[in-house]
Amino acid sequence: MKTDLKTITTQLREAFPNLTDLEIAQLAVSKFEFSTIAGKTVKELIEETRKIYWAEELNRIRAKKGPDGTMRIKDTSTYRTHDLFWKRLEAKFGHLDITELKKNHIIEIANDSQSSAHKTREKRNQKRLEKGLPILENTGNKSYNACLEAISALLRKAVDDELIPVNLVSSIKRKRHVQKPRHGLTLEQTNQIFDVVLNGGNDPILD
Description:
This protein has about 210 residues and is mostly helical. The chain contains seven helices and no strands.
């Protein structure tokens, strides 16, 4: 399956608006050469990428391994997080050839992840309110960005394997996290604490 050079150039201009005409032209020619079916599906690439990340998890210094040297997925970090989003991508677009995966497909999975995280956090916040606890950030933006990171890891392998010319995730803007109200003490706050400790008791010297 071929895509004409004009279409590829248009797509690249939309994806990378800051590139010069020369850079767009070079990238378009490169992408045109890659535009035939790679012969590897998204599902197959995910399976290969899983093996790489699982091996990295097993080699972590602080990995929680059993007596037989195995490790449960729940005891992993990056792999477990990435795999959640890989499964969502696999369920919707795993049948596609990796060259057929588009930017809008990636954004769709990221949006689904954001929506799912938002609903889950809403339920948790309801329980926290009932217990008199402060609510947690529930925009789902963190999950949206984490999804992009997981898919980016997948596409980096595809680029390294010369299946696709560029990582499409690099052109997708991340969403801003809501800043947490917790933070380290400022100098002024530290001085206020010292002031209360030194002057608030019956025995300032002992305090």
